[in-house]
């Protein structure tokens, strides 16, 4: 068995970019990587289990054809389909596990994971952020490296909370907005956690997603908040200081 750990991925601002070459497709944007890491065990066999429950995902169908069949059992503290980048986490676990088991170059395996997310229209920048980035990630150029260019900002905090609200398809948030570039530049001029939350709130509200909580924004089906919430129903996070890795 191969053990793989993958951080959660919550994007605050993004601009989707789809090219004929899947390796050049992805998104420009800024993302925060979060603990607790999802923990996956990958072995021979087939099938995907999330917290013991079997699921079927289109991106995994693609990976099984490209990398061969493996079985992935993943334990996570967040739900699938809410905006935590969990689909990409599963793709990454599959790719890194298959790489170890079948002797595939990890770069090529993770590239297939990136392609699988593009084809399934899941998180266009999650794989790149979760594998090549850490802390807060700026995807300067879209696509998988070397086409894609990633920068990480060493911002740290253990005072971030999320509240899952509803499961939504990622296609509901893939609308390109030109204001994305302005908001990204605003963050780059003062790359702090407070500025990340500020520009993310402005961006997601333009997409029609609003949060009533202070110092927060809504990304797809979750609320991400900086600072302690008033209730205990929130999930506490620390910013992840590294990307996905094989233990």
From TrEMBL:
MF term (GO), any: kinase activity
Catalyzed reactions: (R)-pantoate + ATP = (R)-4-phosphopantoate + ADP + H(+)
GO aspect biological process, one term: coenzyme A biosynthetic process
Record-annotated membrane-spanning stretches: none
Keywords attached to this entry: ATP-binding, Coenzyme A biosynthesis, Kinase, Nucleotide-binding, Transferase
Keyword Zinc-finger applies: no
Location of the GHMP kinase N-terminal domain: 60-134
InterPro entries referenced in this protein's UniProt entry, alphabetically: GHMP_kinase_N_dom (IPR006204), PoK (IPR012043), Ribosomal_Su5_D2-typ_SF (IPR020568), Ribsml_uS5_D2-typ_fold_subgr (IPR014721)
Pathway, per record: Cofactor biosynthesis; coenzyme A biosynthesis
Enzyme Commission number(s): 2.7.1.169
Keyword RNA-binding included in the entry's annotation: no
Sequence similarity: Belongs to the GHMP kinase family. PoK subfamily.
HAMAP family: Pantoate_kinase
Purpose: Phosphorylates (R)-pantoate to form (R)-4-phosphopantoate in the CoA biosynthesis pathway.
Protein name as catalogued: Pantoate kinase
